[in-house]
Amino acid sequence: MIKLEKQDNLDVLERSVEHLQSRGFDNIKADMEGYETPKSYIKKSTGNPVTPDITATKNGQKYFFDISLKSEKPVMLKSKWLFLDTLSRMKSNRFRIITFRGHYKFTDTLLEELNLGNKQPIKIS
Asked: Which end of the chain has fewer CB atoms < 10 Å from its terminal CB, N or C?
């Protein structure tokens, strides 16, 4: 989710955090009240900050999660995903995408366009 959409979709963020907690993730950081905000990274090419929607650890492995919802600005979302995917590979972390019913096709289309077709999104209904 891009920063402009976060305030409108806090319920989606809450459901995602609950899903991850039930799956055994700990040390969860999310950009919402009651949780620590994940670390932001500066993208050198644009100077814009990029913040994952959720970060968590499981079995000593760090995961970056981004929530995929239909967006008016898919270019910004693509840019964020590529950046987080590259960052996670550089640091031997994991990058996963969380999506919800009604947004599956949009997510799959973006992943194919980015050649990230090997990424299986976490689907929450």
From this structure: C
Residues 85-104 have pLDDT tens digits of: 999 999 999 999 999 988 99
Tokens found for residue 52:
């994952």
Burial class (CB in 10 A: 0-12, 13-18, 19+), 34: exposed
Indicate the SS3 state at residue 11. helix
Q: Which residues of 39-55 are buried (b: 16+ CB within 10 A; e: fewer)?
A: eeeeeeeeeeebbbbbb
- Other residues' Cβ atoms within 10 Å of the Cβ of residue 121: 20
Instruction: List, for residues 7-56, the tens digit of each pLDDT value.
Output: 778 888 999 999 999 999 999 999 888 899 999 998 888 888 899 999 99
